[in-house]
Amino acid sequence: MRDALSKVLVSKDVFYTDVSTTKCVSSIRAEVSNVSAYIFLNKSISDPGFRSATYVIHAVGEDVHCPPINGNEIDLLVFRVDSKRELTDVLTCLKNCPLLKSKSKTLVVMKHIRTKTISGVFKTLWENGIFNSLITVQRDIGHVMDLYGWGAFSQSSRCGRVFTNYFHVGACANGTVLFDGDEASLQKFAETSFHSCSISVRVVDWPPFVIPETQNPPDRKNANYIGGFEVQLVKTIASYLNVELRFSVSEKDLNWGTLHENGTASGLYLALLEKSADIGISSLTFPPGYRFLDYGPIYYYEKLVWCVRSPPLMVSWKKLIIALNTIHWHFLVIIYVVASVLVWALSKRQEPGHSKKLGRCFTRTLADILGNPSALPKTTSLRVFFTFWLIFCFHTNLFYLTNLMSLLSKAVTEVEFATSDEILNSSLKLMFLSATKMYFTSDRTPNAFDKKVLGRWVDCPNLETCFAMTVQRGDSAICLPESFILYMGARYMPAPMSCLLRAEDTLVSYPVTMFMRKNLPLASKISQAAQRLSESGLLGAWRQMAFDTDSADFEQLSRPPEENSTVFSLKEFKPLFRCVIFGWVAATVAFILEHLIHQVISKYSTWKNAPPQY
Predict the structure, then answer these.
(1) pLDDT digit string (tens) for 178-214?
(2) Domains, the chain, ordered by start
(3) Minimal CA–CA distance to 52: which of 31, 72, 33, 37?
(4) Which of 149, 139, 143 is nearest to 180 (CA)?
């Protein structure tokens, strides 16, 4: 008797009543299962080892309440069925229950079945993600049960593509199991060589995660991908497991699709649900109905940011102002006023012949700041002040001219949108990739931010159109993943586009993982390998390599490379020449006006002082 707590899964209310069959099932179970947690059969079996709770699953295709059993604790699944159709119905009932694990061993007990049907039973099990299986079939004569096995990953089985090469393992009578060969033939469950397997990977062309070799490949069911750090990840896993990879892509561009809570799906997720693909990659995260699929470890965190049309170039005269920031200008004005007043106060009492008018002091102090110092004062106190004042003016001029030359030698743009809130509060159209909508429509109650985004949501039909609306028309802002922006910005992103990449401007941050169809036989090994590669730090190196790989799908957005140096020409000095000419004109006009006023005043004084004539 086993001391371990046993759990029961039955596919019929009543098991076999004959003692011989019951003993055989118990003996086979004891041979193939050697850990403490099991799933057994009906408690009516006259074997104390089957003492446990019972969960009855009717093989009529009905909806069933999942038993409260953790599938990871299951070592053996036992099904009692009379036909392949009945087995299919039972598995259909359990398809959404966390019981069917590909690593679990499975024993199918069948009363009577024709030999040619055995291959169909193994195929049914394989299609439901069960490959560690044995079938027991009772002979028509006597109480003998034959055992059949099938090497799912053997060379002859070709990893689930050939089911007719099943083999006879042994026979059982009255609880005694007789093997055809070594007892180890019953333990062909844990295969380690997958050289005959191939894995279908469904992707969406999305650098730097997935980078295609050619644009619009002729065979989308067998495409070739040269780069992308997720492509490198699955290729490394395939090399480790010694399996073959087959990449496929949808006929529709950017067809991620979605997976709803009720199990309905579209795009890439639909391919996984329909088992036309084994693995899905391309910056995938958890959709609302992710429980209908298996998934690997989280190996990257992505975030969505805004991109808008780059603001226009700043007019040159503004560069004269922004060479110093607002604080510097305020500080300089205060120092200028204080210095002028101080010079006036000291000159008024101590400096004979020096400027004693406040207006003239302001003029001379301004000349000092502009690099044209006035005559050296005569008193000691003013000379000490004047010396430090000239040192301050020299450093201020040097700082200003350095910043000004830097601004004049490069293109400087106006700042239109500095934060994400300014974009949300603007009149721009908000363009989004349709696959990102689930980040704002989760099962939680949408907050005010989500409602604002969804209220102005506009689906992006394709990237080329969205870029045109953002760059050429300038009436839109597009929301894109940061990794895609960083990849595209180096070579393909339209030049007049800028993106808000600061952490505080992030709209949404989400984890990236790979998804697998439910009960993929190699799911556990793929997840373990992905976890080890993620922890090794190789993903960071592969991601950097992806940024250096060209993508054929985005050549239409390419732009000529920018030169590292900026040509410095006399055009940059046009504002300065304008200022000089304006100063000369203003000075000339002032001189003429002053001369005219002086002439008028002189004539008036002469007329006034002239003696009266009688």
Answers:
(1) 887 654 444 444 454 566 678 899 999 898 899 887 7
(2) 6-187 (3.40.50)
(3) 37
(4) 149
